[in-house]
Design goal:
The complex is a heterodimer of chains A (318) and B (429). Chain A has a two-stranded antiparallel ribbon. The two termini of chain A are 20 Å apart. Helices cover 79% and strands 1% of the residues of chain A. With 318 residues, chain A is mostly helical. Chain B folds into two domains: 45-167 and 308-382, Rossmann fold (3-Layer(aba) Sandwich), CATH 3.40.50; 171-307 and 385-412, Response regulator (Rossmann fold, 3-Layer(aba) Sandwich), CATH 3.40.50. Helices cover 44% and strands 15% of the residues of chain B. The chains are: A mainly alpha (318), B alpha/beta (429). Chain A binds chain B through residues 25-27, 30-31, 34, 127, 130, 134-138, 140-141, 155, 228-230, 232, 234, 271, 274, 278, 280-281, and chain B through 53-54, 90-92, 96-98, 101-102, 105-106, 109-110, 122-123, 126-127, 129-131, 134, 146, 148, 153, 157, 194-196, 199.
């Protein structure tokens, strides 16, 4: 597909989402925000997993860094949402720098286990520092305030702030993937020894990828705190870290749009199943299993392959 | 007289016709269809109910469901709420906050719920408060106990949509202190869950008992994280401190495990006074069976043997017939929540949120647990729940309450404005 067509598709998605924000009912608007937040989280995460080939189980903690920093700024300093988000992203960056510094020395399962350990450390810190974090109750009473004089108190208004950051994330992640930096990350994934023989400091690049993906987690976290009016210690738990992994797998690891499609499937499919049965976990699990095992390369990967095949047969027929 | 107005003649005609119709209708037919008076309330009354229905605590959700379902069946059999049927839909809350919020939004914005009910965890209840304010529909909490919900969210921040029909942590902390006051124990210790609920209850217990009985010592605390399966280190810590009394708000499966392990360690021989504020839960009593020691103080949010009046006895019998179970406390609160909405809607003559909230404030209602009053200031239901000593009874395959003590709620519920002198028990006069 040409670059122009790709941009057209993404502009179409943004326009569709804007229409949803203007025309959808309050529940659809809310679900739309849930999808976008998960997509921001997963798009950033996939820079690490899909692009660099590092499986992290600690990004939930970075998400929580974002939401708790945002909440603390909101409750104690200023209700300006942008400053809150800035604090959230900055804190997530700081923590991912520290955690990443220790973790990127390893790869594969060792890397995964270390990130899991650090993530759970942050989880227990949040759980135990009750005076600051509210323990298991979390922080409550977050207000949304206004951006440049525009109120974002109502869901229909806040939606467009989320949409703005979603669009920004799409653009940034796309730019990162097609930049020289993004290509080096792909090189590291394919063969880190060869990449280092090419004179590239592999660890530093891994760390950079970790921090960048951590910042997107922090962004999703700080927006999530505003959406839900609270922070949740379980957002730092490894079970939450597994969400972007699943979403990337469902959508397709090697594709840019994979996490996006995965988020839609993850949020909307679950909601649909919940309407029919209380054993939703069972059905959700079975369907996810079918997608992950049946569609190699995820929904988008599978779709791309199908399209390419069709194009090839058409060419062959000519 | 304006052109569109009724002329006197038309008026008289209409009056005659109406009275004739009414006379015929009342005498011959029940008014139906076009003849019936237009119902003030349109469509069914819809209640969205969420509770934990998956994972290790899924049993609680089942008990919620039994109570609320039975209320729905009984209400609809007797003609519904103000003539329209009651509809209840259930959703799994998974104990996670984002799920609780999504459920509430689904119920109100997508399913069209008039009211919400349920909620097990305190964190979820606190997270739902601002959401309910935004959605503008009442939520009747039937299990979550944190006093912050009613003291801060309802009273201080003025979120009128939240009500609570079950007893809050006052029952676990303050009332326990009133019972402990009468016991010959001077040194107390605790093994409690390592989260807000555990900390809050122990703090309340210490605060109130310290005031009721100056000189009481609190010698040891051991906090067990959620999901603890090995309580032996905690039990040893407590036994080493040699207290006279053990206070524990461990609950459900973890309480069962703790009691079994404490028994093996000989804790019940060494420590004579044990207080378990949520020990009277049916899952615990049935789960332990005869392994529950005698002479342990237990309580809950409702106990099926109290009050010993016809209403409660009949209800327990109906419940057993319908479900083949003794009602758990969440069954009673779930059941009564539906009747609270029924009474409020009928009193208000409307299912509009504002009118119903107004009717619920200060409302008195009869229920299996006895008479409840919703306190106007903080929307907390006040009713009596006994503290009792476990005892064997040949009528039951598990331990029940023998000796019972009832502390009147006015004596141990914190009072508005909840801050400053005279707001925490004990109260003078």
């Amino acid at each position: 597909m040409s670059t122009k067509a790709t941009y057209a598709i993404y502009l179409g998605i943004i326009a569709g989402l804007a229409a949803l924000g203007l025309l959808g009912d309050r529940f659809m608007v809310y679900m739309g925000m849930r999808v976008m937040l998960l997509a921001i989280f997963a798009l950033g995460y996939n820079l690490l997993l899909g692009r660099t080939g590092l499986l992290s189980f600690g990004h939930g903690a970075l998400y929580a860094c974002g939401s708790y920093s945002m909440a603390l700024v909101n409750l104690h300093l200023t209700q300006d949402p942008l400053l809150g988000i800035l604090a959230g992203v900055a804190m997530a960056a700081l923590f991912s720098l520290i955690v990443g510094f220790f973790c990127v020395r390893n790869t594969e399962i060792y890397f995964a286990m270390l990130t899991l350990a650090f993530g759970m450390m942050i989880f227990s810190l949040i759980w135990n520092l009750r005076e600051i974090t509210g323990g298991d109750d979390g922080l409550v009473g977050i207000s949304r305030g206004s951006v440049f004089g525009l109120p974002i108190v109502k869901d229909g208004q806040f939606y467009f702030l989320v949409l703005f950051f979603f669009g920004l994330t799409l653009w940034l992640v796309h730019r990162i993937r097609s930049s020289a930096f993004g290509l080096v990350l792909a090189g590291i994934r394919e063969n880190h020894q060869r990449t280092s023989f090419a004179g590239i400091p592999v660890k530093r690049y891994r760390l950079a990828a970790f921090v960048v993906s951590g910042m997107f987690a922090g962004l999703a976290g700080s927006l999530g705190a505003m959406l839900q009016y609270n922070t949740d210690p379980f957002s730092a738990h490894w079970s939450h870290s597994a969400e972007p992994v699943l979403v990337s797998l469902i959508g397709g690891l090697q594709t840019f749009s994979g996490p996006l499609a995965g988020s839609v499937v993850f949020v909307v499919l679950r909601e649909i199943i919940e309407r029919y049965t209380q054993n939703w976990m069972l059905w959700f699990g079975i369907i996810l299993l079918a997608i992950i095992m049946g569609l190699r390369g995820g929904v988008m990967g599978g779709l791309e392959k199908r399209l390419r095949q069709r194009a090839a047969t058409r060419k062959g027929g000519e | 007289m304006s052109k569109n107005g009724f002329t006197r003649r038309q008026f008289v005609k209409a009056g005659l016709l109406t009275s004739a119709g009414a006379a015929v209708g009342a005498g011959v037919l029940k008014p139906t269809g076009l003849w019936a008076a237009p119902a003030k309330i349109k469509g069914p009354v819809k209640v969205g109910y969420q509770a934990i229905m998956s994972g290790t605590l899924a049993g609680y959700g089942e008990f919620h469901k039994m109570g609320a379902t039975m209320a729905m069946e009984e209400i609809n059999k007797a003609g519904g709420i103000a003539g329209v049927p009651l509809e209840v839909e259930f959703r799994d809350s998974t104990l996670k906050k984002p799920q609780a919020i999504k459920n509430a939004r689904y119920f109100v914005d997508s399913w069209g719920a008039d009211f919400l009910a349920g909620v097990d965890s305190s964190g979820q209840a606190l997270a739902l408060a601002p959401v309910m304010a935004q959605l503008g529909k009442p939520l009747m909490v039937t299990h979550a106990a944190t006093e912050k919900l009613t003291e801060i969210e309802v009273f201080k921040k003025g979120i009128k949509e939240i009500f609570r029909i079950c007893t809050p942590t006052y029952q676990d902390g303050n009332a326990a202190a009133f019972v402990a006051q009468g016991l010959p124990a001077k040194k107390w210790a605790t093994i409690s869950p390592k989260y807000e609920y555990g900390y809050t209850c122990w703090k309340m217990f210490k605060g109130t008992l310290g005031k009721l009985k100056p000189g009481t010592e609190f010698v040891a605390e051991s906090w067990a994280p959620f999901g603890t399966t090995d309580f032996r280190p905690h039990i040893n810590t407590i036994m080493d401190a040699k207290p006279d009394g053990l206070y524990s708000v461990e609950w459900a499966g973890e309480l069962i495990t703790m009691i079994k392990q404490a028994k093996q360690a000989g804790l019940f021989k060494q420590i004579k006074h044990i207080m378990l504020p949520v020990g009277a839960a049916m899952d615990v009593l049935e789960g332990l069976g005869s392994e529950m020691p005698d002479g342990v103080w237990i309580s809950g949010r409702y106990f099926f043997m109290f009050p010993n009046d016809q209403r409660n006895i009949d209800w327990v019998a109906r419940f057993r017939k319908r479900w083949n179970h003794y009602p758990a406390y969440v069954s009673e609160t779930g059941y009564s929540a539906m009747f609270a909405y029924k009474q409020a809607v009928e009193a208000a003559g409307s299912k509009e949120a504002k009118a119903v909230i107004g009717a619920l404030e200060g409302m008195k209602m009869g229920s299996p647990a006895g008479e409840r009053v919703f306190r106007k200031e903080d929307h907390q239901a006040m009713y009596e729940v006994p503290w009792g000593l476990t005892a064997s009874n040949p009528k039951y395959p598990f331990k029940v309450m023998g000796k019972q003590v009832v502390i009147p709620p006015v004596e141990f519920f914190n009072r508005p404005p909840f801050e400053g002198p005279g707001t925490h028990p004990p109260f003078k006069g």
